Amino acid sequence: MPPKSAPKKSKPRRRKFASPKLLLIWLAILILEGSGVAAVSAYWIFTPGQEAAPAAAQLAPTHFQLPEATPASAPTATATQAVIYLPTPTKTPTPLPPTLTPTAVATQPPSVASAPQPTDTPAPPQIQHVIIISIDGLRPDALFAAEAPYLDTLIAQGAYSPNAQTVSLSITLPSHASMLSGMLPEKHGIVWGMPYIGWPGMNGPTLFSVAHDAGLTTAMVFGKEKMNYLVLPNSVDQRFGADMHDSDIKEHALEIIQAGLPHVLFLHFPDTDRVGHASGWMSPNQLQAIAFVDNLIGEILAALESGGYLNTTLLIVTADHGGHGFNHGDDSPEDRTIPWLAVGPGVRVGVTLTRPINTYDTAATTLQALKLPIPPNWDGKPVLEIFK
Ligand SMILES: [Zn+2]
Question: I want to staple 386 with a disulfide (CB 3.0 to 4.6 A). Which of 62, 162, 188, 342 is the partner?
Answer without folding.
Answer: 342
